[in-house]
Amino acid sequence: MKTVLHHDHEAEPTLADYDHGPLRDDYLTVTLLSAGLAQILQRRTRAERGEPNDEALLPAAWRVGFSRLWWRCAAQGEPPTWNDLQLLALCAQPLITWPVQLDLSESDQQHALLVDSRLSEFAEQGARLARTDVEAEWVENRVHEALRTAASANGSTDREVELAYAYLRRYLIDHAVIADREVLALERRFPATDNAERAHVRRLIETAYRARPAAGPQRYLLCAGCRNIVAETAPQCGTAGCPGGEPAALLLEPLAAVYEQHRATRLFMHDPGLVEARIIDALSDDDTLAGRVRVTPYPGVDLLDVLIEFVAPGGTEPAVLETWGVDAKDQLSAHLLGRGFVWPRSMICKRRFLALPTHRAKQPGYVKDLETELDGRVAGIEVVDETTLVRRVRARAKELNP
Question: How far is residue 151's CA from residue 145's CA, in Å, rounded to a whole number?
């Protein structure tokens, strides 16, 4: 049998949905302000499209965040005199410049909540933690739903669904731009259709990418490190932690269109997925681990990023000696990552790792801040960088199978 996958949609939160935690918890305050900003920007986008808006009040998250910030200022002897518009202007300034002392890490205080009238990466992370249905997260949720639906429709057993999901999930990480010819190839590989005879995998591509009409050869420059599209006039990749390198030319020959990834797909699926892809490749391509270690990408349809099983050599069904689980995360703020991190209860592993990309682990105070937030929230989690994790897997494989 196979598991039917689905995604639940939630209504916009109200005042009662937000946690009125201790006023000194400034991460909660900043998270609420970020969530409110996300909803304000979403309403502005709808207004620009000419869509009706019957929401007279500012978003609940913004109102709670403003109130908490007011009391925080008052506790420091300086009740604020600014209004909502002035606070919106402040959001474009680094938090360290605000007229209130916020108990945030030194690195997090350097961030603003708005950059060029859009949510900053820090604010995006906060809004996601608050489970705010911002437009970017809405696209992300639709991509996840389409991905799960395509995998479920193209597998008759749980294992087949898991394999289809892993292939398609990795496809989004490896391909920032594709031609319509590649979409046709995907349809041949995953032919299941919906009631309208439309391939589920085509719906996934049309959700995760933007189609652009194109005739004749199309040339792109791709970053050597992360495969994101870079501009020919300034071939610099802005992806965090990307090792870069000489951009490589990609020549596509579409029939009628090319597909370029949505910003939300890139921000929340492609870029964060690079670290898990590197871990999977490092373990899967290591000949010394062949027959000793079994690597499963996205076990249980993405309950974790990697399941690592140490097995006894020989036999058609080798015995599993030990199981490790890995959830890889690449997020700007260690504190917000720690607050939002959970381990799936159904994934029972002897060792449980939260794996970080090297550039995050090397950031001063990042690992310590993350472990501080995890303490008392999630037990038994080992925080490691990607290189250390791979090294530990190799060492353990030798210990179990000398």
Answer: 10
Cα separation, 219 vs 230, whole angstroms: 11
pTM score of the predicted model: 0.80
Q: Please check whether residue 373 is in contact with residue 367, taking contact to mean a CB–CB distance below 8 angstroms.
A: no
SS3 content of the chain, % helix, strand, coil (to 5): 45, 15, 40
- Given this model, what pLDDT does residue 127 score? 85
Those residues whose C-beta lies under 8 Å from the C-beta of residue 139, and which sit 6 or more positions away, are 207, 262, 264, 265
Token representation of residue 118: 């859009």
Confidence at residue 17, expressed as pLDDT on a 0 to 100 scale: 40
Torsion of CA 310, 313, 319, 323, to 10 degrees: 0
Query: Which pairs count as long-range contacts for 140-144, CB under 8 Å and 24+ apart, including other chains?
Result: 140/264, 140/265, 140/268, 140/269, 141/7, 141/9, 142/207, 143/172, 143/204, 143/207, 143/208, 143/262, 143/264, 143/265, 143/269, 144/7
Residues 6 or more apart whose CB falls under 8 angstroms from that of 153 comprise: 190, 192, 193, 194, 200
Q: Rounded to an integer, what distance in angstroms lies between the CA atom of residue 185 and that of residue 182?
A: 5
How far is residue 195's CA from residue 198's CA, in Å, rounded to a whole number? 7
Q: Could you say which DSSP state residue 119 is in?
A: E
The rounded distance, in Å, linking the Cα atoms of 313 and 3 is: 31
The three-class DSSP label of residue 321 is strand
- Which burial class, exposed, middle or buried, applies to 25 when counting CB atoms under 10 A from its CB (0-12, 13-18, 19+)? middle
pLDDT digits 0-9 by tens, 123-173: 988 888 876 545 555 677 889 999 999 999 999 999 999 999 999 999 999
Q: Residue 116 corresponds to which tokens in the numbers above? A: 């060029």
Beta-strand ranges (E) seen in 285-342 are: 293-297, 306-311, 320-328
Q: What type of residue is 107?
A: S
Helix locations, 92-242, DSSP H: 121-129, 135-153, 158-174, 180-189, 200-208
* Type of residue numbered 7: H
Helix segments in 290-341, DSSP class H: 299-302, 334-340
H helices then E strands: how many in the chain?
A: 15, 13
